[in-house]
Structure formats: structure tokens, C-alpha cells
Amino acid sequence: LYSSVEAAAARNIPTVIWAHAYRLFCPDQFFTRDPITECNGNCRECLNGIFGHAARDNHLAYRNGMRQANLIIANSEYMAGVIKHHTGREAPVVYPTFDLDDWRQPGADQRQHVLFIKPQERKGFSIFLDIARALPDRRFIVAGKTTAAARRTLNPLDNVATIDWSNEMREVYARTEILLGPSIWPEPFGRVFVEAASAGVPSITSNRGGIPEAVGSGGILIDDIRDISSWIDAIRSLDDPQIRQTLSTRARRHAGIFSSAIIGAQLREAVLHATGLDLDTGATRN
Helix H segments across 118-218? Predict the structure, then answer.
């Protein structure tokens, strides 16, 4: 990134960086740390030996490159805060785009599962296990690549089914009543919550990172993610058909703000304002 920005700047070519991942700032992408309140930019404190020095130098170069860009775009308000903290730059927010029709389902007759995607520790796998054990009467689905160790942990749980990566997530969402997101990681955004919302599936998630922006009013946010009773109470609250339907309606409505047409217009305006370049015509405006 930084070499590309420097080369473009030397030739008076405008540069735009769309920052949607933490790898620009951290070698392990802030695995369990808050990138604003728990990182001082010194990689050597987190990484041992020569790699720590190399990583720090590399990420200093990344940050210098970002400071030289004409425009940095953030994929969430939270990410804009991270960019401001680490580079001093203001970044307009342009959310990811979604083809909302890809996830929508006409009915909800099959919806009786609680879905958890990506059984990884940073995604809250250990928290999910505690929730599933505490609710033996609930039916859970774990979707995504599952390691042998994770499968050994899941196998004794009769109320949990696993599926590998699927290109037909629409069918998975059609079976889903609630999307569970007990993430430990302060995610920059959280695409799966918008996908599920497009299908009318409300989420119960960690109140961390950019996740609340993806969920909007179509879900329940958990502040103390280690308090399993909070998750259980939230899940049981959706046993009320009226509450569940209200959240489902709100989820669909919130997902609408991420349509390609809306986000595309925001991107074009941000680039035009910063660089004078019209993305529709390729012409430069004064």
C-alpha cells in the first residue's frame, strides 16, 4: 500500500484507500484488544523478538502511506475512529454494499434455529459453547470451517448441528430464527449481520467495534459479553412472537441502507469531493 501511494503521489495521481480491515494497523488485527483504547502503536509490546521490530517498522510505513493518500474511506463510524486515532486523518464513512435480494426469503416457516457463524475464538466460540450448554432445549447451527478440536467439543452437544462453508447461505438463513454474534474481537463492521437482516433474521450480538452499526435497530446488543445470563435472557426474549416480529421488521428496514445504489452514490460523492474525479465518467472536475 505505502509504496503504491508514494509512487502515485510522485506522478500526481490521486489515491483513495478504502480501509475495511485492521491489518493496516496491527499484525494480528487487534485480536482481543480495542484498537482505540488498548493500542499505543508499539508492536514490540505484543510481538517478541525481531519480528516485533519488523512489524512495527512495516506498520509505521503503512501509516505514513495512509497520511499521504488524498482520501481514506472507512467502512464504519467505528473504523473512522480507528483511522483518526492511528493516523490523525478524518475518514468519511462508506459502508459495504450488499445485493439484498441474494438473502431475502419469502417466508419464515422453517425458522427454528439459532445460527453461529465461524467457530473461532475471536468470534466468541467459547461463549457460544456456554450458551448452547445452558439451553439444551434450543436448536443451534454452527456454520463455517470447523477444526478437529472444535468438532470434538461440539460433538457431545445434541442440540448443535454443524455445516461447512456454504454458497447457499440464503437457505441457511431460511432456517434461522436468530443470528448469534458473541464476538470477542471488535470487528470493523460485520457483514453477516446485514445478510441475516436482509432475510428478516434479527441478531443478538456483542456491543463491540462496528457490529452495532451493522445490526442497527434489528437486534439486541450485549454489553457484558462474558455474562452468559445476558445472552440467555436475550434469546428467550425473542420467544415472544411480537418482539421477534418487530425486530425482524426493523432488521429488514435497516438492511435497506446498505443497498448498492445508496452506497455507490456515497462512494462517488466522497471520491469526487476529495479528488475531483467523477467515477461515472472518469473525468476530472474542477
Answer: 125-134, 148-154, 169-174, 191-198, 211-215
- Contact present, 81 and 17 (Cβ < 8 Å): no
**What is the pLDDT, as a whole number, of residue 127?**
98
The identity of residue 3, as a single letter, is: S
Q: In what order do the strands lie in the sheet with 160-163?
A: 160-163, 139-143, 113-117, 176-181, 203-206, 219-222
Instruction: Using DSSP, state whether 141 is helix, strand or coil.
Output: strand
Amino acid making up residue 173: Y
Q: Is the pLDDT of residue 46 over 80?
A: no
Could you write out the three-class secondary structure of 33-53?
A: CCCCCCCCCCHHHCCCHHHHH
The H or E element spanning position 206 is strand 203-206
pTM comes to 0.88
**132, β-bridge pairs:** none
Quote the cell numbers at residue 70.
488524498
DSSP 178: E
pLDDT category at 285 given cuts 50, 70, 90 is low
Look up residue 203 and give its amino acid. Answer: S
- Residue 286 DSSP label: -
Quote the CA–CA distance of 222 and 200 in Å, as a whole number. 20
Retrieve residue 157's grid coordinates. Answer: 452437544
pLDDT of residue 18 exceeding 80, the answer is yes
3-state secondary structure of 102: helix
Task: Identify whether the C-beta of residue 165 lies closer than 8 Å to the C-beta of residue 145.
Answer: yes
Q: Alpha carbon 227 to chain centroid distance?
A: 22
- Return the axis-axis angle of helices 228-237 and 125-134, rounded to nearest 10°: 60
Question: Could you tell me which of 179, 51, 27 has the C-alpha nearest to residue 115?
Answer: 179
- The pLDDT of residue 121 is 93
Coil, helix or strand at residue 239: coil
